[in-house]
TrEMBL record:
UniProt name for this protein: 3-hydroxybutyryl-CoA dehydrogenase 3-hydroxyacyl-CoA dehydrogenase
Molecular function terms, GO-annotated: (3S)-3-hydroxyacyl-CoA dehydrogenase (NAD+) activity; 3-hydroxybutyryl-CoA dehydrogenase activity; NAD+ binding
Domain 3-hydroxyacyl-CoA dehydrogenase NAD binding: 8-186
InterPro entries cross-referenced by the UniProt entry: 3-OHacyl-CoA_DH, 3-OHacyl-CoA_DH_NAD-bd, 3HC_DH_C, 6-PGluconate_DH-like_C_sf, 6PGD_dom2, NAD(P)-bd_dom_sf
A biological-process GO annotation: fatty acid beta-oxidation
Keyword annotations of the record: NAD, Oxidoreductase
Protein residues bound to CoA: S52, K59, S122
Length: 289
């Protein structure tokens, strides 16, 4: 990646995260090719970006002209050969190792030899994804947080064979798009989820053990620990199914009881109570998000 010209970015997968990452790059002046196999996903991704940027304009964070310019930098395509000139390739497809490895097999064939390659996985080992790519020294994790345009952190994940040069390039890239990189090892949950998920699980245990009501548990952590959001309200926002999958993955990987999964969380997911997106989780919501 040349330091003198802005890096060209390719984002693979135009869902929640892929479109957020594309937006974050485009706002900072980078040209982005956004690839997805599904035409509807590309349309949804572009629409989501337009709406998100419009919100930022309304809040005074961007001019209308800057919004238009950012959208103009994103090229949506269902043709993978369009990513061939990218300096940085970030994959954000379904959280499924088989899907990711299949995608990376094809991406590696068209991506530039020297490109920085990164996966946005939350729970799969980067080392395992990188193993099929053929140039594991150029591969790392770039773990963005949802919503990407709002949250400034990116975990740069160093896999077994990631080179120091790749780590440095990844950090420089993250800073280039106005985010804050932190470096972590390729261990389950990286840093944020390793600390956050047991905390969220404990809040569910506290609720099911009758320590306090959902409202009181959330108020306790907001007013007593200065958290912006209570843990149960946060699970509702993230999605109970997403929190459950993360908790199960940490428990499976570490085999440590401190990561045990609260049965109540599982029961609520089975009952279709997924949080804001389904209209009910630990709280009820008027409109589904
Ligand atoms: N949602 C979150 O809060 C969050 C946070 C951090 C990281 N992540 C990670 O980001 C990744 C994507 O998550 P998401 O929430 O954006 O998912 P999503 O379901 O919103 O989007 C996934 C996209 O990948 C596309 N896709 C699937 N197979 C593909 C293929 N073979 N080629 C190209 N595109 C393909 C789908 O069409 C879809 O548009 C996952 O690895 C997830 O773990 C998610």
């Amino acid at each position: 990646m040349s330091e003198t010209r802005p890096p060209k970015v390719a984002v693979i997968g135009a869902g929640t995260m892929g479109s957020g990452i594309a937006q974050a790059c485009a706002v900072r002046g980078l040209n982005v090719t956004l690839f997805d196999t599904q035409a509807e996903a590309l349309q949804r991704g572009l629409k989501g970006m337009d709406a998100s940027l419009a919100r930022i304009v309304r809040k005074g964070g961007l001019t209308e002209a800057a919004k238009r310019a950012a959208l103009g930098r994103v090229k949506a395509t269902a043709d993978l050969s369009g990513i061939g000139d990218a300096d940085v390739v970030i994959e954000a497809v379904f959280e499924d190792l088989t899907v990711k490895r299949e995608v990376w097999g094809r991406v590696a064939e068209v991506a530039e030899e020297g490109a920085l390659l990164a996966s946005n996985t939350s729970s799969l080992p980067i080392t395992e994804i990188a193993a099929g790519v053929g140039r594991p020294e150029r591969f790392c994790g770039l773990h963005f947080f949802n919503p990407v345009p709002v949250l400034p952190l990116v975990e740069v994940v160093r896999a077994q064979r990631t080179s120091e040069e790749t780590v440095e390039r990844a950090k420089t890239f993250v800073e280039r798009i106005g985010k804050t990189p932190i470096l972590c090892d390729d261990k389950p949950g990286f840093i944020v989820n390793r600390l956050l998920i047991p905390y969220l699980s404990d809040a569910v245990f506290a609720l099911s053990e009758g320590v306090g009501s959902a409202e009181d548990i959330d108020t306790a952590m907001k007013l007593g620990a200065n958290m912006p959001l209570g843990p149960l309200a946060l699970i509702d926002l993230v999605g109970l199914d997403v929190a459950l999958a993360a908790a199960e993955s940490l428990h499976r990987e570490f085999q440590d009881p401190k990561f045990r999964v609260p049965p109540l969380l599982r029961q609520l997911v089975r009952a279709g109570k997924l949080g804001r997106k389904s209209g009910e989780g630990f709280y009820r919501y008027e409109e589904t998000a």
